[in-house]
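Can't paste images in this forum, so I'm doing it all in text. The chain is below; anyone willing to post the predicted structure tokens underneath?
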Amino acid sequence: MRRAALLFAFLFLATGCGSSKHPAAGLPVVVLQSPTAPSWVRLLRSAGYAAHDGDLASLLARTGGVVPADAVLGAHDRSRVVSWVRNGGRLATANDALLHDLGVGRGPAASVSASRSPQLATWTRPLSLRPLSGTLTTVATSQDGGVLLATATEHAGALVAFAVDPAGAGRAGYELFPHAAAFTAAFLHAPVGPKSFGAEVFVDPGVLPPGARDPAHMADRLKRGGARVAEIAGWNYDFNDPANDYDYAALIKALHARGILAYLWLEPPFVTLRLWQDHPECREKTKTGRDAMVDWRSLIALEDPACFALATQSWTRIVTSVPWDGVNVAELYFEPPWKDANYTPFSHAALAQFGHDPAKDPAGFVRFRTALVTSLNRRVLAFLNGLPNAKRRALELTVIDDTLDPAQGQAVGSNVRQLAAVAQQAGASLIVEDPFTTWTDGPLRYDRLGPHVASLMPAGDALLDVNVVDRKGARPTPKMTGAELSLALGSAAAPLGTVALYSLGTIGAGDLASVPGALASSVATTDLGTYGRQAVTVTSPTPAAGRLTIDGIPWPAANETAIVPAGNHLLKWSSGAALGPGIASFTGELATARIAKTTLELRYFSRPETLAVVTQKPRLLRIDDASTPLQVQVDPAGGFVVRLPRGRHVALLGF
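Text version of the structure:
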């Protein structure tokens, strides 16, 4: 609902919060309706702020707004906007006519190919534009000093002016000004938008600097990055010197204490360096006959039954020795034929199973490799399902996509439809990684891949893997950052609800902090509540508003935040402390909740056991109206972690 007459009546119904004292603080920023308004809304939401498009009356009814360059405004409407700014409004625009009316001039056209402010302005190719001029505070300039981005004071209001619209002319918003979305939102006093703490973040302790390997430090970083699951590299053990084995038990304890699930990340055909060293007969062979050590992986010939048995013995030790919540079988594929020295599998076992010379039947060998990849993934999942306590652990299968680049998918032996069927048969979720050949196609490539992957699996059982890694030859930066990363995460999360993120060791601190907002960017923020396919955490519009109802139900808010289930919901914040205990985080799928002074009721579904962080220490737990032993752990950041059983249940906590 966007009618101006209703805006102030629903001041406390917004999903975000702002630190400003403006009367419309807490309401989403309005982007004036235009052809590029959806791109601007997406850009602002991906930066972690609440925004939606609206008409001129909606924009003028609050204190901050965006007028895209292609918005059509007559002279009368422009004068209304100018008056609004001069009376205290805060505006971001690249609209030529509006900038002129606000006293911002333009210089002669110039070709800009680079910026003196690479953090805010980055050009992928030369662009002709007219630099800004006037009484401005310069924020970003071209190499010859032309003003590209600036701010200005207009009586009681303020303006951020762009020489070219970041989201105009078919751009997504990251190409020219990779960090300007956050800059603009902060300038407009935009409220914080919904956040999703549902990421599955890969982390290899073995490649982190010594200080970053500390379990508590790692767990805190993962929590800031919105991790629901930590995917922990499962090959840092069995070293010749046991002192070099990583302390998985300590890390899992630290993760659980912060309400984060711990999954073991396997990377077959690699197993461990110990297995590679002790069993040279099990080393995979490439086409040239050399031992297959490719990139960082020392590959084992899992197609050999004896070697597969050795691998499962090693995996059994790591899976059963500590309390993992899940296991991810990731990237069990063969190396592509681009280099004969890396092309696999050419072990004696593989050649014997193929039955004849691959050189005389290359097409048949390609089909054989694909069938073998599918078979090996099925066998590894079956092995994991046969281990003790397997029902308590979630299973995942990470595979290489074969739709955006079918040639690359075929080259590694990945048939995603077949692998999706393998995952379903084993009760595993499917994670699909886009091949490296597509990493320079722009962050919105996931708009194409996500719906396809969603069609392969039951709802909630599939997600995409977003890689934040160095990209040789890519421009403008060697790895995704700023708006490009945020848009990629939002694009990947939109059709599936969450993403896998590679990795904790390759993403900077600033980008890591932006992950929760980016993941929730597909959730619509209206003046009355939220609408989307995923659960999100929302923030009250003011620190004084700590009491919440969702769809009229008294809701367990926690420290002026609340978890809102997927769907269309009406939020109503009011002043005062929460009525009872609150939920700070929840790793399961929350359907609904309700609080009273001394009880908290949750209806939920979860495949692995669920970790819920609550604000008060519970004294009893009932599951489906039956008394259940209570497991509680103190969260170092405040609150108490409660473990709930897997499946679909009604949990009642007493305090």
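Residues 532-654 form a domain with the Immunoglobulin-like fold (CATH 2.60.40). The chain has three domains: 29-187, 199-519, 532-654.
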